[in-house]
């Protein structure tokens, strides 16, 4: 699966990773990742696969509609920083202004599922 820069930023936001964290876990140089996330370059297949694999190991799922979800880690280790209840799924959406919103399902007092949504990341992209 090939991911786009917004998905990488969203996944890092969910995990509270910086570029160096992703570089360390994926083996892709930090400079390449930074340029990829700024839409300066595209990752080659091997780099993309390494990034996707690093994210998947800690429970990130990439959907066809560009949605990014944090759920149970593939290796069962808990995958580092994640929601307290790993049965919950965090969903991330990215609006046209590059604002990233996380939505977390939870059971309310009446035992009905609701969502908490908050902005988790904003990146200003200047226009010419």
What report would you give on this structure?
This protein has 4 helices and 5 strands. The protein has one domain: lambda repressor-like DNA-binding domains (434 Repressor (Amino-terminal Domain)). It has helices at 5-15, 19-26, 30-37, 45-57; strands spanning 60-62, 68-70, 90-94, 99-107, 113-122. It is globular and about 30 Å long. The protein starts with a helix and ends in a 6-residue tail after the last strand. α2 crosses α4. With 128 residues, it is of the alpha+beta class. β4 and β5 form a beta hairpin.
How do the helices and strands line up, and which of them pair or pack?
Elements: H1 5-15, H2 19-26, H3 30-37, H4 45-57, E1 60-62, E2 68-70, E3 90-94, E4 99-107, E5 113-122
Antiparallel strand pairs: 1-2, 2-3, 3-4, 4-5
Helix pairs in contact: 2-4
Total domain units:
1
Q: From the helix content, strand content and strand pairing, which structural class follows?
A: alpha+beta
Using the CA coordinates, give the radius of gyration: 15 Å
Largest sheet features: 5 strands, antiparallel
- Count of alpha and pi helical runs: 4
């Amino acid at each position: 699966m090939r991911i786009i820069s917004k998905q990488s930023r969203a996944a890092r936001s969910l995990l509270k990773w910086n570029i160096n964290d992703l570089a360390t876990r994926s083996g892709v140089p930090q400079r390449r990742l930074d340029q990829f996330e700024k839409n300066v370059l595209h990752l080659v297949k091997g780099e993309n696969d390494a990034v996707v694999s690093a994210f998947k190991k800690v429970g990130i799922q990439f959907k066809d509609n560009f949605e990014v979800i944090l759920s149970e880690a593939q290796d069962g280790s808990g995958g580092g920083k994640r929601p307290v209840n790993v049965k919950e799924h965090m969903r991330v959406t990215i609006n046209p202004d590059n604002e990233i919103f996380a939505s977390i399902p939870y059971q309310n007092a009446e035992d009905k599922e609701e969502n908490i949504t908050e902005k988790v990341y904003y990146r200003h992209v200047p226009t010419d």
